[in-house]
Amino acid sequence: MSRKRVTIKEVAQTAGVSTQTVSRVVNGRPDVSPDTRQHVQEVIDQLGYQPSKIARSLIQGQSFSLGVVSSNISLYGPSHVLQGIQETAKEMGYSLMLHILPDPEVYEAKKLLREIMSYHVDGILWAMPEIGQNRDWIQQELSNLSVPIAFLNVQPRPNQATVIIDNRAGGRLATKHLLEQGRQNIGIITGPMSWWEARQRELGWREELVANGRSVDESYITHGDWTPSSGERGIRMLLDWHPEMDAVFACNDQMALGAMKIARQMGRRIPEDLAIVGFDNIPEAPYFDPALSTVYQDLTEMGREGVKQLLAMINNPDAYRPDPIRIQPELIVRDSS
Amino acid sequence: MSRKRVTIKEVAQTAGVSTQTVSRVVNGRPDVSPDTRQHVQEVIDQLGYQPSKIARSLIQGQSFSLGVVSSNISLYGPSHVLQGIQETAKEMGYSLMLHILPDPEVYEAKKLLREIMSYHVDGILWAMPEIGQNRDWIQQELSNLSVPIAFLNVQPRPNQATVIIDNRAGGRLATKHLLEQGRQNIGIITGPMSWWEARQRELGWREELVANGRSVDESYITHGDWTPSSGERGIRMLLDWHPEMDAVFACNDQMALGAMKIARQMGRRIPEDLAIVGFDNIPEAPYFDPALSTVYQDLTEMGREGVKQLLAMINNPDAYRPDPIRIQPELIVRDSS
DNA sequence: ATCACTAATGTTAACGATAACGGGATATGT
DNA sequence: ACATATCCCGTTATCGTTAACATTAGTGAT
What we know:
The structure is a homodimer. In chain A, helix 1 packs across helix 3. Chain A has 3 domains: 44 residues, Orthogonal Bundle (434 Repressor (Amino-terminal Domain)), CATH 1.10.260; 135 residues, Response regulator (Rossmann fold); 130 residues, Response regulator (Rossmann fold, 3-Layer(aba) Sandwich), CATH 3.40.50. In chain A, strand 8, helix 11 and strand 9 form a beta-alpha-beta unit. The longest helix of chain A has 17 residues. By secondary structure, the first copy, chain A, is α/β, with parallel strands linked by helices. Chain A has 12 helices and 12 strands. Strand 2 of chain A pairs antiparallel with strand 2 of chain B. The structure holds a DNA duplex.
């Protein structure tokens, strides 16, 4: 039997004071006598009064909520980022308005931002992967956006708060490790090259090879789409073209999983004949057969850091914007390399 | 150079009409002449005016936002449920206020609900697993909750909107399949028994055995905690105690993964010596070695259905509450059984 | 006793929007 | 010609809260 919302008026009436006095008690202002304060507080507790953040945000122009734009959160990456965002937001007293785009490559930036802003959020976290031209739409709207925005895992641009995983360094880590294992012919199964992250990982692989005096053979590259089945296709192509290949950097763990399965079917022993390194460190990776070596990226930390950056901008709009924050991935060596 | 928010007043002033007229245009009300309507619409487009949902919700008592209570969304289950919730909410024109509890077994229901209600949400989706006594706290607060609430994947109770996966049927599916494969000694690695879902799966296993005239040996049961490493421990105990065991129902895919790894190390061939069936159908399952047979639960659909139920209650508060909705899981047979 | 000041509380307006009502102009009916 | 209905638009009150200002009573100084 749902009771209606308890308002400040009811509290004021019950306590026999003005709403302003109740407001002062709720907000811990000094101008209230101890007696009154206690009495009002008792009434508040008794009625179970909770101030409306909606009404408060109208008058104060601050809602203590953040807009989050993300893509399909049932995937490993976005869900971990969101978890981090959530943790820090909650800690700092902010709530989240969630906006998931069904297709990261197709959206109307103007409409999206208006929708988000209609909830009077204090800031926006852009947690969408940078794919194709999808950064440009939002970029054009930035000039007349009335709240700060922080970007996660996209190419840093001047004067924009950005927090990224250093995917390029991650690619180098993986490749360096394979070289140190004495591998001679190191192929790569990339992510979709329309993704900025995927290009960065490939770049890291390329740079590390060159830095070690190896030549880069373009036919050692094959492109996947992050799915295990694309890992299967990728490894099949690589091994067909280059039977001498003795190591592969799969740009995420799921593709690595598919690749290992097919490689075994094609008669390769892992890691003896073929070493594999993945990227992500999904919880299943240590239990693959063999346990997968991989590059760990702390996506949750990235989410946390993004919120911190955003709140810094909110609380000090004229703040100096620091260089983009780069979170370093870590190599985790297991049995596949 | 952030412009301030465009309000209805500015639009009215620019267009030379009253705010009420602008409001009528925005809401497509009839009492506006075609000329005026067009003129106002032009001004709206030109200024980029977007009505404030905050202000609107104050006066109308409806915010078109839903509160979602969930646990760690970086996990497989919660993230998939949330994705479904999000999809349908967006489709129906609702936004989400996200509330994640750091520990599903410890929370203050009263405080939590007040916090959520302070955003004037139109309804609440309870997407927390039922663990230990954690359902009771919220249950006590229900009587003075002023908006409808729908529960996901918890034990149905009278007069409460509930959408669940039929975990018990899932447990029976898995066990039936193993029996049909001619397996004689079927063990189980359960989830944590404080979880309702885990108990239901175990119950299904138990029931199916009994229904087929088998006796249930309690030492064929071992308890895991959903993690792959607990699957490793579980299978080790089961095979130590009962070397004759020729099938195991692991109550999620991650535990199945750990179990398969250790079973192989203990010299069992899968599926020849030991059949394994998991639960969930995580994206990696088809690529395990061997490909994992499992029980697929459509968590996203459960989220979608939950929103539909909730909106039905919101739009018709006196509605007859139907029986709890039970979503049937499906058996997916691959190579591990 | 008067003034100035402080402490405690109340009053009014405002945030951005819509509901409810009112009223002028035109059209319709007799 | 007059009452009545219809169309179109404006005015006022309101949602729940807080900012800004106003008021009252008491305190201390002169």
